[in-house]
Design brief:
Bound molecules: 2-phosphoglycolic acid
Order of helices and strands: EHEHEHEHHEHHEHEHEH
Strand content: 15-25%
Strand order of the largest sheet: 1-2-3-4-5-6-7-8
C-alpha cells in the first residue's frame, strides 16, 4: 500500500553509544500525529541494539545492505537470515555508494532483491542518475534501465514489499538538491514506468526522494503528488533535523 515514509540512512556513522543516544532522542522528539512510517538504518554492528531500543515505538530498523547468498564463504558479508534473526525485516539495496564504491551492479542487485523477497523482507530499492547522465539528457533512460535490470523481474505479489528511492547521485551529500519540480517529474516518470509493466501496482508503491533533503526543503519536495517521503542521509544524523524533515510531511 502506498504510504508516507521517511527513512534515515546513517551510513558509516555513529558508534554503539551514539546510536542509542540518537534513537532515544528521536523517540522523544518524533511527532506522534503524523501518519508515516519512520525507518532508520544504523550500521550492521548496531542493528541489534537499535531493534531493542525501538520496541513499542513506530520506528522500524533497516540494514544498509546485505549479501544475496544464504550463507557461506563470503568474508565480511551479512545474510538475510542473520538480519532477520535479530529482528531486522527491512534492507536498503542499491544505494549509489554501494554501486559506486563497491561496484554493485544491477544484475547483482537483482539477486539481492530475490533473496530479500524470498525472506519476505522489505526492500528500499535505490537508484538514480549521475550528473553526466542528466547533462546528456539520459537521466530517464538510466533510471528506466536501473529499474528494469535490478527490479522488474519480480512478480506482482513481491511489490507489497518494495519501496522505491529515487536518489540522483549528483544530489547525494553535495548540498545540491533536485528542485521539487525535478523530483516530481522523475517520480511521475518512475510511477508510469512501473505502470507500463505492472499496471495499477504503480499506484500503491511508495516512491521516496533522496539527495540533500534538509529541514528547509523537505516540505516543498514532500508536497509533490508523486513524492511519498524521503531517504535522508546527512540530516538524519541530528535528531532535530530529522524530526523537522518528518514534520515536512504535515
Ligand atoms: P544525503 O544522502 O541526504 O546526505 O544527500 C542521501 C542518501 O544517500 O540516501
Amino acid at each position: 500500500m502506498r504510504k508516507k515514509i521517511v527513512a534515515g540512512n546513517w551510513k558509516m556513522n555513529k558508534n554503539a553509544e551514539e546510536t542509542e543516544d540518537l534513537i532515544n532522542e528521536l523517540i522523544e522528539k518524533l511527532p506522534d500525529d503524523i501518519e508515516a512510517e519512520i525507518i532508520i538504518a544504523p550500521t550492521f554492528v548496531n542493528l541489534a541494539s537499535a531493534v531493542d531500543h525501538v520496541e513499542f515505538t513506530n520506528i522500524t530498523i533497516a540494514a544498509q545492505n546485505m549479501h544475496n547468498a544464504e550463507n557461506g564463504a563470503f568474508t565480511g558479508e551479512i545474510s538475510a537470515d542473520m538480519l532477520q534473526s535479530i529482528g531486522v525485516e527491512t534492507v536498503i539495496l542499491g544505494h549509489s555508494e554501494r554501486r559506486a564504491y563497491f561496484h554493485e551492479t544491477d544484475s547483482q542487485l537483482a539477486f539481492k532483491v530475490d533473496t530479500a523477497i524470498k525472506h519476505n523482507m522489505k526492500v528500499i530499492f535505490c537508484f538514480g542518475e549521475e550528473l553526466k547522465d542528466r547533462q546528456d539528457k539520459q537521466h530517464f533512460n538510466v533510471v528506466e534501465n536501473q529499474l528494469r535490470d535490478g527490479l522488474f523481474h519480480i512478480n506482482n505479489e513481491a511489490w507489497e514489499n518494495i519501496i522505491l528511492a529515487y536518489e540522483p547521485v549528483w544530489a547525494i551529500g553535495t548540498g545540491e538538491t533536485a528542485t521539487p519540480d525535478q523530483a516530481q517529474e522523475m517520480h511521475e516518470f518512475i510511477r508510469e514506468t512501473v505502470r507500463t509493466r505492472f499496471g495499477t501496482i504503480a499506484d500503491d508503491v511508495s516512491i521516496l526522494y533522496g539527495g540533500s533533503v534538509k529541514p528547509d526543503n523537505a516540505k516543498e519536495i514532500f508536497g509533490k503528488p508523486d513524492v511519498d517521503g524521503g531517504l535522508i542521509g546527512g540530516a538524519a544524523l541530528k535528531a532535530d533535523d530529522f524530526v523537522a524533515i518528518v514534520n515536512g510531511l504535515k
